[in-house]
Amino acid sequence: MLRLLRLLRLHRLPAAASLCLAACTAPAPAHGVALEPPLPRPSFTLTDTQGKPYDFAQRTHGRLTFLFFGYTSCPDVCPVHAANIAAVLHKLPFEDQLKATLVFVTVDPARDSLPALRAWLDHFDRTFVGLRGGESAVDSVMGKLGLPAAIRAAPAKPNGWYEVGHAAVVIVFTADDVAHVMYPFGTRQVDWAEDIPRLLKVGR
Q: Looking at the domain assignment, is residue 101 inside a domain?
């Protein structure tokens, strides 16, 4: 299982030193991995933590959006990504914070109830969006983005705890409704602090 997790984490992808973003004069992000071709903002609907349908493409249209897939029992990747992004967003001017959205989609709906998902996200930021759907529906969304389906292991410990293998990248959609770059596990707060102000200008 650990070997599968390492294969899915994608954090060995080389960082891009410079990215050329089409039709944009804003400074290019200095970190992350360039997506060639860029990914259009996908259309899918899952359930948010209020129990209501959340149309991703419609609700995040024109906004800087951090999208990643994980689960609340994740021992490392998910809390690190969420904490690092939250820490940097909280230091931005308030008007810039209003232009950004983080959307976390659980790959472990069996354990991640809507209240559990909301409580976990609130540790980082109460505005972060949590989405839940059936395993096949979530895997289908990841497939649209070129990500591998999650690997859900049977409980291996007496307490029923288990790990879920999942892609460990954050895909960032900018105001032009396209993702030009994704960020692997290992992206530091200083990297986000340098790139997020630049990403806010892309497509504007």
A: yes
